[in-house]
Amino acid sequence: GKDLNFTCTYISGAPQGRQNQNGLAEGNWKYVCNMARNFLAENLLPRQFWYHALKYAVQVSNYLSVKLTNGQISTPHELAHGTPPDYRKLIPLFAVGYTKVDKTTATQNDKLDCQSIPTILIGNDDQSDGCLFYNPKTKHIIASSDYRLDSSRPSGPIFNLPHEQSGFGFTMLNPNHTGTTSPPSFTLGDQVYVTTVDSNDTPSSKPATVLTVPLSDDLPYTVQLEDGRILEEYSTSLSPHDPTPPNHQPEQSLVSHPWIKHGAKVTVFFSNKMTSPKQGYLYKSNTDQWSFIPGRASIHNNKNTPVPLPNFDTAVHTLIRDNLITQHWITSKSFMEQYSLAQASKTLARRIILTNDPSPDHVTDDNIMQQLTDNPAQAIATIFKISASSLSSQHEPKLHEHYKLSPNDKQIWDDSYREEYFGLHNETQTWHYISEDEYQNMKSILGRPLPTMAISKIKRDSQGNPVRAKYRIVVLGNLDPHNWSKSDCFAPVLSAMELRLLLAIATKFKVIPKQCDAIQAFCQTTLPPDEQYVCTPPKGCPITPPKTYLLLKKTLYGLKRSPRHWYETAKQALLLLNLKPCPNAPCIFTGKVIPNKPPLYIGIYVDDFIYFSEDPTVETAFETMLPQKTTLQIEFNGDVHHFLGIKFTHHKSLDGHTTIHLSQEADVKQLLDENNLNSPSTIIKPTPYRSGHPVDSIPSVDMPHPQRIELESKLRAIVGSLNWISTQTRPDISTITNIIAQYQSYPSPGHLDAAKHVLRYLKGTSELGIVFTSRPNTSLESFVKFPIHPDQIHPFSDANWGPQDASVPKPTDPIQEVDLFKSRSISGFLIWLGGPLHWVSKRQSITARSSAEAEIYAIDECTKSLQHISNILSDLNLLTSFTQDHPIPIMNDNEAAVNWSHNMTTRGLRHIQMRENAVREQVQLGFVTVEHIGGKHNLADAFTKEEKNDEHFITCRNLLVTKIPNSLHHNISMTDMHNDSKNNDIEHAISDDTTPDDTNGQNTNPTVVRYHSIKLDAADVTDSASSMCLLRRSRGVLSYVRRTA
Predict the structure, then answer these.
(1) How many CB atoms lie within 10 A of CB 362?
(2) Which helix (H) or strand (E) element contains residue 73?
(3) Alpha-carbon gap, residue 519 to 570, rounded angstroms
(4) Does residue 919 contact residue 878 with C-beta atoms inside 8 Å?
(5) What angle do CA 40, 41, 45 make, to 5 degrees?
(6) Neighbours of 283 (CB within 10 A)
(7) Which segment of 88-102, 174-188, 201-215, 787-801 scores lowest on mean pLDDT?
(8) Helix or strand (DSSP H, E) at 1018
C-alpha cells in the first residue's frame, strides 16, 4: 500500500462495458507470479522473499517491449512515466552479494579482519545508485554501492535458508525414489566421489565435480567425471570422501560396449519376462553369470528378485541392436519410443529392399538388421536411397510443408526424411533423447538448445536428371555459444587446380582414377568431452517425441567445428594406411599401401575421395584395408564418372594411352533453367563477348533502392555460378566472368544483360570441357609452333595494356567520371600439363606505366603458381618426372619483359617494384626461364581482354575446351581427333559410299564422301601437317574432302 500511494497508483473497478479486459489483467498477474516463483526456486529461497521477487518481476515485465495499436514499439514503463526504462537497473536478483563493511559501525576495525559480509541482493535502492542487500544473520536490509556479486550459486543453501516446496503449487517428484525434502548435502563445485559396485560386490568410486544441485533429495545431482562424462546421481551414490579400498581393481567392461559392466545402470525390456520397461542394474556373479536387478535402490540394499540373463555376452549385441537394453535410466515412454524407431527402421528397410529387388525370399528381419549393423556403410549405401525419378514436381519442399505435396511426392519426401533421421539416430547414433526434466537439470552445463533444420535436395546425375531425393538435418551453427577461433574450425579442401593436377598425373601413368565417398561423414566423429550440445528437432519433425531434446554424441552438419573434426578423422584413418598428406597440399595424400609397390595418390574434398595408382593391386588393397583397419564408412564407386558436379568421360585405347574429358553440362543446364534461358527460342551467341560493347563501357544508372537490391541479387547469383564453372572446366569464360564480377556491388541493367549474354553462349556450348591426355597434342603444337610434350609443364603468360574500353568520347557525350580500376591492365596465364592445368584472368591491382610492366606483372603471377605446383610435385616425388631438372620455360610475347627477366634492364623499366624481382631470382636460380613467343601464337591471349575477333577467339577456345569426341563413344581414342592419325580414323569410320576411283586411290580429283557412322562437328577436326583436309557442309551434312599430296 505504501508503494501504491508513493507512486500515486490507484486501483479501481473496470468501467462499464470493459469487463472483458479482466482476463488480460489476470493473465499478466499470472505471468509475474510465475516469474516470481522462478526467482525463488532458482535460488532455493523461502516464501519470506516473495515480496521482493514479485516486485522485481513486475519491474521486469514493465521493461519488456510491446507493440502498440499504431504499430510502434514501446514499453509499459515508458507509457506510464514518459521516459524510457533504465536497463542498467536489471540485476541478478537474489544473487549472493559481498558488501563492504562500514568502518563507522563495525565492532572491530582490525585490518586483518574480513572487509565484507555475505548478503542477498533483493533489489535496487531508489535513494542512490546502489542496491539493497538482505543480511540473513542480522535480518537487516543494507543499501550499498560497494559490492561484489556471485550469481553462480543459489543463495538459499549458502545461508541455510529452508526452501518450502508447498505453497507455490510446484514440485518435481520421482515416483521410483522416496526421500525427504531437505537442503542438499553438496553445493556447486564440490568434489565428490560417485560410488559403483564391481563384480565382487566391492564398492568402487570415481572422483567427480558437482555441476548442478537439485531442488530436493528426490532429484539427482548432475556431476562430471574426470574423463568429461556427465552423469546424474542421487545423494545415496555420492560421498565427500573416497570409500574405495586402495587395492581395489575396477571392473573390466566389454570391449565392444564399454558401458556393459557390473553395476551399470540400464533400462531393459524383455517381453517374455516383463510387461513394461524396467530400470535397474546389471549384475555379474563370481561365476561370470549375468542378471538384471530391477529397481533404483543400490545393489547392496536391493531386495528385488534378479532376472537371469543367459548367454548375455553373446546376446548383448543383438539386445542393443534391437533397442531392448539401453544405457542409463530412462522413462518407459522414452524407451518405447526408441524401440518403435528401431522397428520402423526395419520396416522402411524392408520396403525399400523389396522396391529395389522384387524377389523377397532373402529379405528377413535378421538379414536387414545384419546389414544395418555388421556392415552399415554398405547397408546405408545400397538400401537407404530414395529415388527422385518419379517426382511430379522438382520443387524442394520444407519439412513442415509436406502436406501441400501430391500423395506420391509426399510419400517420397517422407521416406527421404526417415532415411536421414534413422541413419543418424539408429545407425551412426549421432544423438540420444533426453526429456525436458533431464535437460533442465543439465541446462547450466549445456546452455540453450541449438535449433536444427531439415534441408531437402534433389540430387542429379551428370546429365542433370533427378536421381535421388535427399534430406540433410543440420544445426544452426551460427548460434554456437563457443568462441571458436578460425584455426579451431578451419578444414582444408581439394582445390580445382589440385584435382586437375591429380588427373594430369593419372594420365601420365595411363590409368583411370577411381572415386569413393564417406557416408554421413560429419557424423562419424565423436564429440570431445568439452564440446557438449543439445538440439531441438527440426520444425515439423514427425518422429521425435514431444518435449524431447537431442543430446549430440557425435558431430553434426552445421556445427562450426564439424569440418575440422571430420578432416582430422579422415587424416588419422589414412595415416593408419601409411598415407601421409602433402605439406603444400593437405588434401592430397600419398604413400605405399603395399611395400615394394607403386604409391597410391588420393585427393579429398570433404567426403568425396578420388584415388589411383600405377598398380591396380594397390587400389584393390586400399579398398580392402580402409574399411577393415579404420572406422570410416566408405562407399566405393569404381572409375570416376561424376565428381564434385563434374562429368568425367574417359577412355583407355588399345595402345595404353589414356584420355579424360571433364565437363559441366548439368550445371550449365541448371543455370539456364534458373534464368529462364533454356527454351528453344533463346538465341545462342557464338562468343561470350559483345563485339563493340565492352562491359567497362556500360554506364551507371540511377534506380530506386529496392530495384537495385533485386538487380544485385540476380547478378551475384549468375556471377557465382559462372565463377564455379569457369574455374573448373571452362577457361573460355574466365575473362568475361572476372570483368563482370567487378560490378556486383553497384550494377546497372546493362551488366545483367552482359551476364545473360554469357549464358546464351553457354547454351550453345554446354557440352564443351577440358581434356587431359597422354598423347601429344599436335593441334596445340601447330598453333604455338613448337613441340608440346604431355609430360612437361608448358606455361603461357600475357597481359593487355590499358583499359578494355579504348573508345574516344564524342564532343556531344556528357562528362562522366571514370573509375580508376578500368584503366588497369588484365593479366592472364595458362599452365599446360597434358591439358589445361591452371588458368587465371585477373585485373591488376595497380596501373602499369608500360606494356612491358603489365607483362612483367603477369609473368610474376604465373611464376608464383608454378612454384606452388612444383612444391606439390616435389612432395609427391614427381618434380623431376615433369621438369627433367630443366628450367620451366614461360612463354611471353613481350620482348622487353623477356629481356628484363634475364636481368637486362632498360632505363624505362628501372621503376619496376621490388616484388617483381622475384621473377629474376627464379630465373637466376634455374627454376624458370622466360622465352618469347609471337603474340598471335600465345594461348594466354584469351585471358587478357574481351576479344573482338570472333575467329581468333574460337581458334583459341577450341584448343582449350572441346566436346566429348565421338571416339569415346565408339572406342576410338579421343586424342586421335587431335593428331596426325585423325584423318585415317575418319576414313575408317566413313560409310561404304566411297567411289571406286577413290577406293583404288587412282582419282586425283576431290571426292566427297557422306559421313554416316559418327556425327562429327567441324570444331573436332583440324588441319594436319601431313595431309590437307577440307570440311564443308552440304545440305546440313558434314562432308569430308581429301586431296592427294
Answers:
(1) 8
(2) strand 73-74
(3) 12
(4) no
(5) 50
(6) 22
(7) 174-188
(8) none
Cβ atoms < 10 Å from Cβ of 528:
11
3-state secondary structure of 99: strand
Q: What is d(CA 526, CA 555) in angstroms, rounded to the nearest whole number?
A: 6
The three three-digit cell numbers of residue 785, written as one number:
609452333
At 839, is the pLDDT very low, low, confident or very high (cuts 50, 70, 90)?
very high
Crossing angle for the helix pair 734-741 and 705-728, to the nearest 10 degrees: 150
Choose among 444, 452, 450, 438: nearest CA to 544.
452
Non-local CB neighbours of 576 within 8 Å, separated by 6+ positions: 629, 630
Q: Which residues contact 567 (CB under 8 A, 6 or more apart)?
A: 491, 492, 604
Task: Pull the grid cell for residue 691.
Answer: 563485339
Amino acid at 505: I
Of 101, 142, 96, the residue nearest 118 (C-alpha):
96
Joined together, the cell numbers standing for residue 766 give 554446354
Question: 307 pairs with which residues across the strands?
Answer: 292
d(Cα 15, Cα 18) in Å, to the nearest integer? 6
The tens digit of pLDDT for each residue in 499-527 reads 999 999 999 999 999 999 998 888 888 88
DSSP 998: H
What does the pLDDT read at residue 884? 78
What confidence category does residue 166 fall into, taking pLDDT thresholds of 50, 70 and 90?
very low
**Residue 904, pLDDT score:** 62
Return d(Cα 163, Cα 157) in angstroms, integer: 9
CB–CB of 44/54 below 8 Å? no
Element (H, E) at 618: helix 616-629
Distance CA 974, CA 642 (A): 19
Q: What is the mean pLDDT of residues 525-538?
A: 89
Length of the chain: 1045
Average pLDDT over every residue of 643-670:
89
DSSP character for 324?
S
* Cα–Cα distance measured from residue 85 to residue 299, given in angstroms and rounded to the nearest whole number: 58
Q: What is the pTM of this model?
A: 0.60
DSSP summary character for residue 239: E
- DSSP β-bridge partners for residue 889: 929
What are 615's three cell numbers?
598398380
H helices of 663-786, where? 665-674, 705-728, 734-741, 749-764, 778-784
CB contact at 8 A, 186 and 204: no
| Beta-bridge partners for 239 | 193
DSSP codes of every residue in 759-794: HHHHHHTTT-EEEEESS--HHHHHHHTS---TTS-E
Instruction: Flag the least confident range among 272-276, 378-382, 645-649.
Output: 378-382
| Alpha helix positions (H), 64-198 | 76-81, 155-158
In the β-sheet with 230-233, what is the strand arrangement from edge to edge?
230-233, 221-225, 203-212, 191-197, 238-239
Candidates 371, 270, 375, 257; CA nearest to 314 is 257
CA–centroid distance for 850 within its chain? 45
Calculate ∠ Cα 1038-1041-1045, nearest 5°: 155
Measured distance CA(321)–CA(422) in Å, rounded: 13
Rg (CA), the chain: 38
Beta bridge partner(s), residue 309: 290
Any idea what DSSP says for residue 395?
A: -
Q: How many CA atoms lie within 13 A of 662 on its CB side?
A: 27
Report the DSSP pairing between strands 928-932 and 888-892.
parallel
> How far apart (Å, rounded) are the C-alpha atoms in residues 872 and 883?
13
Tens-digit pLDDT profile for residues 59-80: 888 888 888 878 788 888 888 8
Cell numbers for 510, please give them: 595411363
Please say whether the beta carbons of 89 and 44 come within 8 A: no
Q: Which candidate, 663, 644, 667, places its Cα nearest to that of 759?
A: 667
Residue 821 has phi, psi (to 5 degrees) of -65, -20
